[in-house]
Amino acid sequence: MDFLNINFLNGMATILAAFIAIFLYYWERSKKKRDAAKIIVQEIRRAEDIINEYKEHSEYKFTKKIIATNSWAKNIHYFVMDLDQDELDKISNLYSTGEYLDSIIIKVSDYKFDENIKIYQKKFNQMVAGLNQAVQNQQSTSVIIQPESQPTPKIKDIKIPIQMPEPWKTLLDEISKNYEPVYHSNICEKLKKIAKI
């Protein structure tokens, strides 16, 4: 009889331990999902704020990364049961669009940096040449006298302003202005419910 009681108690303890382990697993998974949803909602809001800022001012700030971290790629598996295929695709589209825009912005930043270095070097070289010329002029003691002549009439320069957009501007405009926002949609509402925001 004692043997049966001990086996019964051992069996009950094993079953209870299994239930506790399962409960803790699902509770931890739920917590991770909630935290991931909070982060993703924040990333979506931030990315769309930067894209909307571009739509208003037609320029991206080189210091602001649209997709600073891609939490969506790491956590999409949590939301497969909560969002339908189109909703998953729209969020994935935001992240891929943001990362692509970031890559273009980095290239533009590098190009502008290189151009500024070239301009600086050119001005520096002109300054050095001017200083060298001034030193040479001071060393030269001969005076050149030119006979007076009639000034030649100047022909007016005609300047026709041509505004060429920077090559990347068209691409940034096309991508940014055609982007469909996600933040104020049912998609983010679902994520906010999961995040308990």
Can you walk through the features of this model?
The protein has 197 residues and is an all-alpha fold. Helices cover 70% and strands 0% of the residues. The protein has 5 helices and no strands. The protein has helices spanning 2-57, 71-75, 85-139, 167-177, 186-195. The longest helix has 56 residues, at 2-57. The chain is elongated, with a radius of gyration of 34 Å. The two termini are 56 Å apart. The model has no long low-confidence stretch (mean pLDDT 84).
> Element order, helices and strands?
HHHHH
Structural class: mainly alpha
Total of helices: 5
Please state the average pLDDT score: 84
The number of strands is 0
Report how far apart the termini are. Answer: 56 Å
Subunit organisation of the chains? single chain
Stretches where pLDDT is under 50 for at least 5 consecutive residues are: none
Proportion of helical residues = 55-70%
Q: What is the 3D shape? A: elongated
Largest sheet: none
Residues in β-strands, percent? under 5%
Radius of gyration: 34 Å
